[in-house]
């Protein structure tokens, strides 16, 4: 005979113990916060730098995402991912982060809607057209895949649909999802910084200035304080966090080199975009013109740091376009855009935060770079030409005939060439164990430097924007006027400076990876009938099996009693 009283007491005790355990676990959970990400690529785990930034917000950050409404599956996935990343942000920021999703196409008057669209475009949120099928008909919809972030009296627009345009639409969306944390976190950081870091754009040796670098200044001034500095007239670069040396054309004195060297020794960051050869584009018609070397007097400077720019040019089948006269119609010359092999399009990158998911970069007259041994320096290649490249050593005759000639792959067998390097480590001064320039302060000389980072790119034109010949206004950096194509030159420079200056490490969020796991269409078609039958029969079979097992257990239990 079963003792019902003892059995009831046992059930009550088990229930009470369970309640107590639940309360204890909840109390421990409130005291010791933790989250577990079970995905293989840790897609729901944000970086430590982002967490620290979110936990230290002084005021409330408001995020208005203009991606609400009905969308095709791809944009629904982007919308869902934005919501998920903002939910993760809110876990660490608490009430200091507020967000909402807005449909900018709501039923308002056409004039107000158009003004609203214009306002979003001015904040950098460009619309895109998407096509969907609704009720058996194709429907076109204008989508603004971006957000406006506000902090105090400051606000910033951020595009959330990015990626390499040479990729498929699905891959572009995936790349955009991978970059969500960085785009949102870096924008919040920019708005919340009380002090902008400063960049010196070095002049004094015929570097591009004025309208030619208006696009560069505009791009970087959103994040940093950038100032032109004549290196020959200042005593030092103290007070700046980094400098940019772009396309110098005349020689450096030893004193000027010492100023740059000592800035680097004290932990300063630097971006060098250097042309080794000069080509006059106005003279490439007819018989052409020779590429002439610049006398920078910087060879020993770069060699000491472990790099050498060669007197050569890289030609590439994967090239940008240049207008060529191909005939006449009456008195009017007929122009045609043709690929110019001396204008390589860079679309091959190392998997690194600076260049991850970057679109194509437009270059002109790029030189080969050799690396030289430098003790303790970590070297990372960033930019590659395509596999169909060729190296032409000086003297080099550059002519429009190079455009008209057929570009045969068998003549371009040098393989991918690195044209951009990242160097990290503690460098030694180029004046270590050497006499300092006359008049230099020996007492403040640093022979062995602090940990820092340098980036070298062998194309000075990379940072220059074009100028509209009709209006005289500078164009956006990366806009190629012949084909009216926007390249990623601006993104490359902004990412490069962000990596060099980002002590918190938020840019490392660009390493986030979200894998696409598509179904195999062939296997899906072959196994279609099997899986349809399985999904229909299996649930019914499980219910019958469960009922039989339960019936057997009950019969056995009561038969024993």
Notes on the structure:
The protein is of the alpha+beta class. Helices cover 31% and strands 26% of the residues. It contains 13 helices and 26 strands. The chain has helices spanning 4-31, 48-55, 73-93, 110-122, 169-178, 180-192, 214-221, 254-265, 299-305, 401-404, 489-501, 521-526, 528-560; strands at residues 61-65, 97-101, 128-134, 137-143, 146-151, 154-159, 198-203, 225-230, 242-246, 269-273, 277-278, 289-293, 307-309, 312-316, 319-329, 332-346, 348-349, 361-362, 369-371, 378-384, 389-393, 396-398, 418-428, 448-457, 479-480, 485-486. The protein has an eight-stranded mixed beta sheet. It has a four-stranded mixed beta sheet with strand order 2-1-5-6, with helices on one face. Strands 11-12-22 form a three-stranded antiparallel beta sheet, with no helix packed on it. Helix 2 (48-55) crosses helix 3, helix 3 runs parallel beside helix 5 (169-178) and helix 7 crosses helix 11. The radius of gyration is 31 Å and the shape is globular. The N and C termini lie close together (8 Å).
Q: Looking at the chains present, what oligomeric state does this protein adopt?
A: single chain
Largest sheet geometry: 8 strands, mixed
What low-confidence regions span 5 or more consecutive residues with pLDDT below 50? none
Q: End-to-end distance, in Å?
A: 8 Å
Label the structural class.
Answer: alpha+beta
Strand segment count? 26
Number of helices: 13
- For the CA atoms, what is the radius of gyration? 31 Å
Average pLDDT, all residues: 85
Q: Give the overall silhouette.
A: globular
Helix residue percentage: 25-40%
Give me the side-by-side strand order of the main sheet: 8-7-9-10-24-23-20-17
The percentage of residues in β strands lies in: 25-35%
């Amino acid at each position: 005979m079963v003792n019902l009283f003892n059995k009831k007491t046992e059930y009550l005790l088990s229930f009470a113990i369970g309640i107590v355990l639940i309360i204890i676990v909840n109390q421990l959970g409130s005291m010791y916060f933790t989250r577990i990400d079970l995905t293989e690529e840790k897609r729901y785990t944000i970086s430590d730098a982002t967490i620290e930034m979110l936990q230290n917000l002084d005021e409330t950050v408001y995020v208005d995402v203009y991606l609400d409404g009905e969308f095709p599956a791809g944009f629904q996935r982007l919308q869902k991912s934005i919501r998920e990343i903002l939910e993760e942000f809110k876990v660490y920021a608490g009430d200091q982060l507020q967000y909402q999703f807005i449909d900018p196409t709501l039923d308002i008057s056409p004039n107000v809607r158009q003004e609203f669209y214009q306002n979003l475009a001015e904040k950098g949120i460009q619309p895109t057209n998407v096509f969907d099928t609704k009720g058996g008909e194709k429907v076109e919809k204008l989508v603004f895949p971006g957000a406006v972030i506000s902090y105090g009296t400051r606000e910033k627009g951020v595009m959330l649909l990015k990626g390499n345009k040479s990729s498929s639409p699905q891959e572009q969306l995936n790349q955009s999802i991978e970059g969500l944390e960085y785009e949102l976190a870096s924008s919040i950081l920019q708005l919340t910084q009380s002090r902008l870091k400063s960049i010196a754009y070095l002049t004094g040796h015929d570097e591009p200035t004025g309208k030619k670098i208006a696009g560069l200044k505009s791009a970087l001034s959103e994040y940093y304080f950038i100032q032109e500095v004549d290196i020959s007239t200042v005593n030092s670069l103290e007070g700046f966090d980094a400098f940019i040396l772009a396309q110098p054309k005349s020689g450096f004195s030893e004193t000027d080199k010492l100023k740059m060297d000592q800035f680097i020794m004290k932990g300063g960051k630097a971006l060098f975009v250097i042309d080794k050869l000069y080509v006059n584009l106005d003279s490439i018609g007819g018989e052409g013109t020779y590429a002439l070397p610049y006398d920078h007097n910087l060879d020993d400077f770069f060699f000491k740091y472990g790099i050498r720019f060669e007197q050569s040019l890289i030609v590439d089948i994967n090239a940008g376009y240049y207008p060529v006269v191909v005939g006449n119609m009456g008195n009017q010359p007929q122009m045609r855009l043709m690929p110019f092999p001396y204008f390589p399009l860079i679309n091959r990158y190392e998997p690194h935060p600076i260049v991850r998911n970057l679109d194509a970069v437009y270059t002109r007259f790029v030189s080969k770079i050799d690396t030289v041994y430098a003790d303790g320096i970590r070297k990372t290649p960033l930019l590659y030409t395509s596999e169909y490249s060729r190296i032409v050593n000086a003297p080099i005759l550059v002519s429009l005939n190079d455009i008209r000639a057929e570009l045969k792959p068998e003549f371009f067998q040098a393989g991918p060439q690195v044209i951009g390097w990242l160097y990290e480590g503690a460098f030694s001064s180029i004046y270590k164990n050497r006499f300092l320039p006359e008049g230099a302060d020996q007492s403040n000389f640093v022979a062995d430097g602090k940990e820092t980072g340098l980036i070298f790119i062998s194309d000075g034109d990379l940072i220059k924007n074009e100028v509209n010949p009709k209006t005289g206004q500078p164009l956006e950096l990366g806009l190629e006027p012949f084909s009216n194509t926007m390249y990623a030159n601006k993104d490359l420079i902004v990412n490069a400076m962000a990596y060099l200056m980002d002590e918190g490490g938020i840019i490392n969020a660009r390493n986030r990876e979200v894998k696409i796991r598509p179904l195999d269409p062939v296997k899906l078609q072959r196994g279609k009938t099997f899986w349809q039958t399985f999904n229909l029969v299996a649930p019914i079979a499980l219910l019958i099996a469960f009922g039989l097992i339960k019936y057997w257990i009950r019969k056995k239990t009561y038969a024993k009693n």
